[in-house]
């Protein structure tokens, strides 16, 4: 359906005074996608027949898990309904932001493309950790914030109470907090009017050399890379030669347009303040990176817009096909995913235990889990992933520095200092659980930075924590110790020197690389004992005694033993039935194929899988939701 009303009638000809660029920020599950759906309906860019829940979350994985991974920008024509400007037409560009900490950089770029943010808070839940984190990000980007309480249709909603809290937080009056229901649509038209009234129109210099900021970049199998941009200065017209300022790469602009909610080509290009997409035929998102500045090759801008950052992996894990012959398929699948994900890194590696695979770098655990799931689901691969680890910096006494992304590559020389990455975590919890949260954070080597009461019963705790301590089960622990009431948000905050050691697990004297781990000195013993005990239960007895040892360097810290057995499959086969004997021998051979040799020890592949998948007690998985 064509948009009913489009001021200036075409993209490219809309005057900046008629444009409002905004985003919705919220804690997960506070109803951002549902509200966006109502806005699509009210502005009639999607009619009731086409409407499906969470229209903008296109990827299947997104819909199933209810999380938004890739941001989108939608152009919404809106005629003001009430007040002084009633009847005046505007263009609202709604920029959807991903909500998870792994994608904070993408959130910050989406915010930079807006003048205003709608801060959405569930009226039955109140402020949560991500409400705060997103609010701070919005304020850092100088955005005007409209506080909105959502889900007022719920019987448990307490809009009065949370309006007070919200007003206190952002320094406004409780009556300034709007009230809506994304479910019933109540209050949404008024919110759209307020977006026009309160947010500023974009400003930019129409005659200056063109500068447009990339805030998202998505690979599409049919169209190649689709890049989402906001024009800051000048304009972009079809068929122009554009230049990416961070790399200097020049591409021809094959198509430019807006999304409303499907792509609509713009023959008039895009002018100051407009938000839309462009396509150049490039096949790889790394050539069109989030945060980069697009300019015109013939008349380039001299200075790029600020804020460009290379995505840096924070968490590493080895991915191995369970069936070794899938290795080439895994490589092809990773190559394909990389087209859409500038933050995914991988390098081939070999493990004595697991064979050929890849060491992959991710933004965080959720990112890891999403990639793993896509590999399994979209490419039909069965994978095993090693326990995730962070990146360590090791200074040796001989003055050399090593960046360690794989524990089995820990340098052998005399270690000087070891540094590990840290995060600044914000935990929001009801008063009653402060003790439990503090105990958990201290157990994870956290340092309390500060504590504030947001209201009589809600406390904000700020900690510095080693990233390695929160990537496993921290979130699950936090939830279980606070009966689900606490929420968590964190951001990288540099590194710290720590007392870390590498623990090796040896089978019959041979180190098994897949189980090497870098852990804090105080936790090394525990790690060694747990893994050794687990392996003893998983590895069948051999014809000789097999010691399982955990060691730091040459010092053994834990030991288990698998006793010897003489496995004579023919022992029970009395009499002379030769065919039966043959069958048994054949069967034993089959079994041997699935065994891996570690030194002289035969280990069934399943033992590695079982030990790895539970080695951290969390199945190596991130919490799907925060
Ligand atoms: N009763 C009621 N339920 C709502 C309302 N808005 C959203 N919900 C429900 O709240 C849940 C979360 O809503 P979503 O729109 O998926 O939340 P979201 O913030 O987009 O979630 P993420 O994409 O995971 O960040 C869903 O089950 C919605 O049906 C509302 O106004 N009233």
TrEMBL record:
Principal subcellular localization = membrane
What is the membrane topology here? Peripheral membrane protein
Against Pfam families, the record matches this protein to: EFG_C, GTP_EFTU, LepA_C
Q: What does this protein do?
A: Required for accurate and efficient protein synthesis under certain stress conditions. May act as a fidelity factor of the translation reaction, by catalyzing a one-codon backward translocation of tRNAs on improperly translocated ribosomes. Back-translocation proceeds from a post-translocation (POST) complex to a pre-translocation (PRE) complex, thus giving elongation factor G a second chance to translocate the tRNAs correctly. Binds to ribosomes in a GTP-dependent manner.
Lineage here is: Bacteria, Bacillati, Actinomycetota, Actinomycetes, Micromonosporales
Which CDD domains does the record match to this protein? EF4_II, EF4_III, LepA, lepA_C
Q: Which residues form a coiled coil?
A: none
Q: What is this protein called?
A: Elongation factor 4
Q: Where is the signal peptide?
A: none
Name the keywords, alphabetized. Answer: Cell membrane, Elongation factor, GTP-binding, Hydrolase, Membrane, Nucleotide-binding, Protein biosynthesis
Q: Which GO terms describe its biological process?
A: positive regulation of translation
Q: Which organism is it from?
A: Virgisporangium aurantiacum
Query: What PANTHER family does the annotation carry?
Result: TRANSLATION FACTOR GUF1 HOMOLOG, CHLOROPLASTIC, TRANSLATION FACTOR GUF1-RELATED
InterPro entries with a match to the protein in the record: EF-4 (IPR006297), EFG_III/V (IPR035647), EFG_V-like (IPR000640), G_TR_CS (IPR031157), LepA_C_sf (IPR038363), LepA_CTD (IPR013842), LepA_IV (IPR035654), P-loop_NTPase (IPR027417)
UniProt entry tagged with the keyword Cell membrane = yes
Q: Family, per the entry?
A: Belongs to the GTP-binding elongation factor family. LepA subfamily.
